[in-house]
Amino acid sequence: MSNIRITKQFSFETGHALYGYDGKCRNVHGHSYKLSVTVIGKPITDSENVKFGMVIDFGDLKKIVKSEIVDKFDHATVFNKNTPHVELAEELKNRGHHIILVDYQPTSENMVIDFSEKIKKHLPSHISLHSLKLQETESSFAEWFASDN
């Protein structure tokens, strides 16, 4: 049986700031992110299996990505916990804002690496994460490919 790639797309709104950056993105701002998740595997050949003919049920993939990425990052603000932004993060958190502190600069590049690790942990053993595409704006995105890593 052939390997097939399955892709599901997700959208979420997230704010961030890039500490030490020399452009406008050093300021707190947000993006309407679009995340495309592509997995690869062989379709199920057991005709008795309710998922017969599927690599993975789109609903099952949605549950993984929603719980690990979308539900956590949607309408949150992400800061690098190793910068003075941690003080701003605490102030916002004390005012009821949803804050995520990460141990990396929250660029699209680093976020897509983080997302790949979070998703891979929850995929069934017969399915592999093939690629991720995290679109920050209409014309800017970062991609992660398993074959590159």
Automatic annotation (TrEMBL):
Superkingdom of source: Bacteria
Phosphoprotein in keyword set: no
Active site: 25, 75, 136
Name of the top EC class for this enzyme: lyase
Molecular function per GO: 6-carboxytetrahydropterin synthase activity; metal ion binding
Binding site for Zn(2+): 16, 29, 31
GO biological process, one term: tRNA queuosine(34) biosynthetic process
Catalytic reactions of this protein: 7,8-dihydroneopterin 3'-triphosphate + H2O = 6-carboxy-5,6,7,8-tetrahydropterin + triphosphate + acetaldehyde + 2 H(+)
EC number: 4.-.-.-
Keyword set, alphabetical order: Lyase, Metal-binding, Queuosine biosynthesis, Zinc
Pathway note: Purine metabolism; 7-cyano-7-deazaguanine biosynthesis
Metal-binding is among the record's keywords: yes
Cofactor, free-text remark: Binds 1 zinc ion per subunit.
Requisite cofactors: Zn(2+)
Family, per entry: Belongs to the PTPS family. QueD subfamily.
The name this protein goes by in its record: 6-carboxy-5,6,7,8-tetrahydropterin synthase
Protein's organism: Christiangramia crocea
